[in-house]
Amino acid sequence: PHLRHGVSYALSNLAKEKELGDLHAHNSQWVRLGAVVALRELRSAEAARFLNDANELVVVEAARAIHDDESILDALPDLAASLNSSSFTSEPFLRRAINANLRIGDQASAKRLSDYVLSNKPSAKMKLQALWSLGLWSAPPTLDRVEGRYRVLPARESQVAAGLLENHLANFFTDSDTVLQEAAIRVAGSLAIKSTENDLQNILQDGRNTATARSAALTSLFDFKSSLRQEALSFALSSKEPKLRLAGQQLLVRSDLPDAVVGEMLEKVLEIGGTQEKQMAIRSLGTLPPATSEPVLRSLINDIGQADTDPALLLDIFQAAENTGSASLISAVAAYEASKPADDMLAQYREALYGGDRRKGQDIFVGNESAQCLRCHAVSGYGGQIGPGLSNIGNELSREDLLLSLVDPSARIAPGYGTVSLTLQDSSVVSGVLMDENDEQTTLKVGSDEERIIANAEISERLDFPSGMLDMKNLLSKEELRDLMTFLVSLRSPEN
C-alpha cells in the first residue's frame, strides 16, 4: 500500500488526466485503484469513468475522490446518477451517491432519491438516509451529511420533493421499522405535505405508536400549520404520556394560537403535569401578557407555604412573575424575599434546593470558569485534590448541608480541610486542621505531630478560620446553584 500510494502520487504529478482515465479498462484492480487516487489528487473529472468498475473497492475510492474534501464538481452528477445505476451496496459509496443528489438539488436528483426510497433495493439504513435527504430538500444543512464539512447549498422549492413523495409517504407511517416511520412523519412536516394531516392526527392519537412517533406527528402538524393543530395540541397536553405533553408544551410556546387559549392550556398542564412539565408551563406563563398570566401566577405565589407546594417550582414561579413585568407580581415576589430572615443563609436560597437540571449542573461543575469546581474537587478520580472528593457526596451530606456549603462555605468545613484555633481552660492555645468532632471531643492535626484529641469540656474558646472555598452565591445565579445542587445530590458511589 505504501509503495502503491507513492506511485499514485508520482503519477498525479505527471498531470496526464486522459491517460490516467484510460486506465479504467486495465485488467489489474490495483492499477485502476492507483489511477483513481492520482486523479483525486488532480481533482480531475476523469475519476467518474471508474464509477462503473467491476470492483467495489475501486468504485468506493472513485466516490470518495469525487465527493470528499473540495470535491470534483464536474463529476458530481455522475456520482449522483450512479445511485440507481450501480449494483453495489457498500455504505461509503451509497452515502456519497445519496448526498451528491442532495447537493445537486435539481428535479432529476429528487426523482432519483424518491425512486431509491420507494424501491426494494436499499437497506433500511440507506433508505433512511435518502428519505432524510428529501426531507431536507428545501433547507439543506450547512454541514455535509457525509463528512461534516461546511458547505452552503442553495434553498430549493419543497414542492419538488413533496410532489414525488406525496402519494407514497403515508405508506411509511405504519412501517415496522420505527426509526423509518418517525423519519417519514417528520419529513411530512418539513415538506409541508398537508394531505397527510389526517394520518398524522391518527398517529398522534393512537397509543400503540411510540411516544417519539406521536410527538413527531404533533410537530409536523404544526410545521405546516394544519387546521387540526389546536385540536391536536389540546389532545397532547391532556395525554397520559409525559413525553407527548412536553412536546405539546414546546410547541405551545411558539404557536400562533391566541394568548388566552395558550394560558388555558398551560393551566391544564399545571393540573396534571409532572414537575418538569409544570416548570416549563410556569416559565411559559412568564412570556405571556400580564392580563393572561397574572391570575395564575398570583395564585401560585399565594399558595407557597401550603403543604402540597412543590419546592421544585419555587424559583420558576418567582422568575416567571418577574418576567411578566407586572408591578403587582414583582411586588409580591419582593415581599416574599423580604420575609426571609436576613441572617439565615439557607432560607435566603431555599429555592435552589430542588428542581434543577442535572446535566446543566454537571456542565457547571466541569466547565464554569467562575466556579471552577473541578479545579479543587475530584469526582471518580478526575479533578483537583485541594478540596474533599465528591464522588459520594450525595450520601454524605443532606441537601441543606450541601446548599449551605455552596452559599456559606465557612459555615461547614469538611474534616481535614479547615483550620481552627482552640483556647483551652489553662489559657494555652492549640491550632491545627480539624480532623473530627462530636459532642464530646474535637480532634486536631497539629503540624506533623500525631492527631490530638481534646475534650470539649477543656475548650474555653474556639475560632474557625474562613474556608478557602469560593463563595458560590457571588459567582452563580440561583438557577445555576439549583442545577449544581441537583448534580451534586446525584453523586453516589455504587457501593453506597
What does this structure look like?
The structure is a single chain. This protein is α+β, with helices and mostly antiparallel strands. The protein is 52% helix and 7% strand. It contains 25 helices and 7 strands. The strands form 2 sheets. The chain has a 5-stranded antiparallel sheet with strand order 6-5-4-3-7, with no helix packed on it. Strands 1-2 form a two-stranded antiparallel sheet. Strand 3 and strand 4 form a beta hairpin. Helix 10 packs parallel to helix 12, helix 12 packs antiparallel against helix 13 (229-237) and helix 17 runs antiparallel to helix 18.
Task: Describe what is shown at a glance.
With 496 residues, the chain is an alpha+beta fold. It is built from 25 helices and seven strands. Helix 5 packs across helix 6, helix 8 runs parallel beside helix 10 and helix 24 crosses helix 25.
Shape: flat
Fraction in helix: 40-55%
- Number of helices, where a helix is a run of at least 4 consecutive DSSP H or I residues: 25
Count of beta strands: 7
Please report which band the strand proportion falls in: under 5%, 5-15%, 15-25%, 25-35%, 35-45% or over 45%: 5-15%
Q: What's the multimeric state?
A: single chain
Mean pLDDT: 90
Integer-rounded radius of gyration: 33 Å
Main-sheet strand order equals 6-5-4-3-7
Uncertain stretches: none
Largest sheet: 5 strands, antiparallel
CA-CA gap between termini: 54 Å
Structural class: alpha+beta
